[in-house]
Design a protein that fits this description.
The chain has 19 helices and 18 strands. By secondary structure, it is of the alpha/beta class. Among the domains are: 61 residues, no CATH class; 221 residues, Rossmann fold.
Length: 541
């Protein structure tokens, strides 16, 4: 078990945590959630001992080993990939080097022999004799191929460094595992492997992530960081979100009888419990919801943005036609022979194993880049709004948010007064004096919220989204997701957020160096279809 007792932390006048008391127990996985800046990552650092609180203490059951996902990619530059993973078990690594040093002594004494025997026994108890093969297996599961295992960390690509550091934290079955954004840099298949690994993990896991599908798959509880406190709730992220929303509606409905409200809540819990029994979660984790009482459900204090795209007109029959589009970068084919037409009601998830491919494709069809061949044509009824992955160029000038958004008022709007502009900023939670904030000092998440305000202002009937969840907190992601689900127009999207892709898209197009794969199906159906997976293997071979 690991506990925080009366933990308080303040930076100047800003109180991040105030008398926090919380415990985490074996067999459970806790998703640490909270708005950007609430202190989620800081709390993990307090638990790991990296940050000392102003007051209070962290208690760990004696003898239990903690592992932490490292964020410094350069810390192990001079170590091999395999040794970096082995170093995740500090005591095992230390014992290995002490006994090797003893055996290397020229004047090896009887006392040295006795000491070496003790170390060999300890090494064996920790699984030391299987450690290299276990570490190698873990690396391979995370997509780090065997030929890289003896390379120095400084010589491998940064996205593989992230995988090695993740393997380091998972190595040796630690009693307490602290993971801050563990899915960063992972592809869909590797995230699936990690979900299965953690869903069956029998020790304590604390994870910070903005990936709702990941949190839903692995978590038995969520710990909500809000207003300088942390409170733990039973269930995964979706259960916490939907139950807190339901409770808020129940509390606001004064005409509904208490027994009816209670019956509705019990029915909700029963339905979620039934779904949990069909999930990947281990049996011990399915029981968490069965023990839940209604009293544990509370309405959320969170504010959610209002992301509502309202088309000025419906799309016509001609939306987007793409013919033989092609793009190469530095001799590398990102995609070619891309031909398809977009139909009414299409919400298309775009995939590629090359992350550059979709960004270049979206830039091309939005006239921000040029193809090496082929053509595309938008219909005359189309008004599109584009959220590029890189948008810093929109924020070079130190405008106030009001003046910044005013630049993008479309010609058809004739009454763009201050209340009108404030309304669009207010939907994205910029209120009061916030609207006078300068755009060149905005955080990443604030810039995305500004870009979404700009998109809503366009009254588009087509939205194009390149990694829309980057930099956003879970509240904004949830609202963005629901806004795209409810949008009556066309959506073209690529995202690392599994839930976003699954709940929004009804069609999947994958761009490959040999052409496209185009299927009318959901994202999950696409990823689980055996014939599709065989075709994917051929297209990337």
């Amino acid at each position: 078990m690991i506990s925080a007792r009366n933990v308080t932390l303040a930076f100047g006048k800003r109180v991040l945590f105030d008398e926090v008391n919380i415990s985490f127990t074996k067999g459970n996985c806790y998703g640490i959630i909270g708005a950007n800046g609430a202190g989620k990552s800081t709390f993990l650092k307090i638990l790991s001992g990296e940050i000392e609180p102003n007051k209070g203490m962290v208690e760990i059951t004696p003898g239990e080993r903690m592992a932490v996902l490292k964020q410094n990619q350069f810390e192990f530059d001079e170590q091999t990939v395999l040794n970096t993973v082995l170093m995740g078990h500090k005591r095992m690594w230390e014992v290995m080097h002490v006994k090797d040093a003893l055996y290397a002594k020229e004047d090896f004494t009887e006392a040295d022999g006795l000491r070496a025997g003790e170390l060999e026994a300890e090494f064996g108890e920790m699984g030391g004799y299987e450690s290299e093969s276990n570490a190698a297996s873990l690396l391979s599961d995370l997509g780090v191929k065997e030929q890289m295992h003896q390379d120095l960390m400084k010589d491998i690509p940064s996205n593989f460094k992230l995988r090695v550091l993740l393997a380091q934290s998972l190595f040796g079955n630690p009693d307490i595992l602290l993971l801050d954004e563990p899915t960063n840099g992972l592809d869909i298949e590797t995230i699936g492997w990690l979900e299965n690994f953690l869903a069956d993990y029998q020790n304590i896991v604390l994870v910070v992530s903005h990936d709702r599908h990941f949190l839903d798959t692995v978590c038995t509880h969520v710990s909500d960081v809000d207003r300088s406190k942390i409170k733990t709730f039973t269930g995964n992220y979706s259960f916490w979100y939907e139950s807190s929303q339901l409770m808020a509606r129940q509390m606001s409905d004064k005409n509904k009888k208490n027994e009816d409200k209670r019956a509705a809540l019990l029915d909700f819990i029963a339905r979620f419990s039934a779904n949990a029994s069909k999930s990947k979660q281990a049996t011990s984790r399915k029981k968490a919801l069965e023990k839940l009482t209604i009293e544990e459900i509370e309405p959320s204090n969170r504010k959610y943005p209002g992301i509502i795209f309202q088309p000025l007109r419906e799309v016509g029959n001609q939306i987007l036609n793409v013919e033989k589009l092609k793009k190469e970068v530095d001799g590398r084919v990102l995609f070619k022979d891309v031909s398809f037409s977009v139909s009414k009601n299409d919400k298309i998830a775009f995939l590629s194993r090359d992350p550059l491919a979709i960004t270049y494709f979206f830039d091309i069809i939005n006239n921000n880049g040029k193809a090496d061949g082929g053509s595309f044509e938008w219909g005359t009824t189309i008004t599109s709004a584009y959220l590029p992955m890189e948008h810093n160029a929109f924020f070079n000038e130190p405008y106030s948010l009001m003046d910044w958004l005013r630049q993008y008022v479309p010609a058809h709007v004739t009454d763009a007064d201050e209340p009108f502009i404030r309304g669009f900023l207010g939907k994205m939670l910029f209120s009061g004096d916030d609207v006078m904030k300068k755009t060149n000092v905005l955080s990443g998440g604030e810039k995305v919220r500004c870009m979404v305000s700009k998109m809503m202002l366009q009254n588009p009937n087509v939205v194009v989204l390149d990694q829309p969840t980057n930099h956003l907190d879970l509240e904004s992601i949830q609202s963005f997701n629901e806004g795209c689900q409810n949008f009556p127009g066309v959506v073209l999207i690529t995202s690392h957020d599994h839930t976003f892709m699954q709940t929004v898209a009804n069609r999947v197009i994958e761009l490959t160096p040999k052409g496209i794969i185009d299927r009318l199906m959901t994202f999950d159906e696409y990823m689980e279809d055996k014939r599709v997976q065989e075709l994917r293997a051929e297209m990337y071979a």
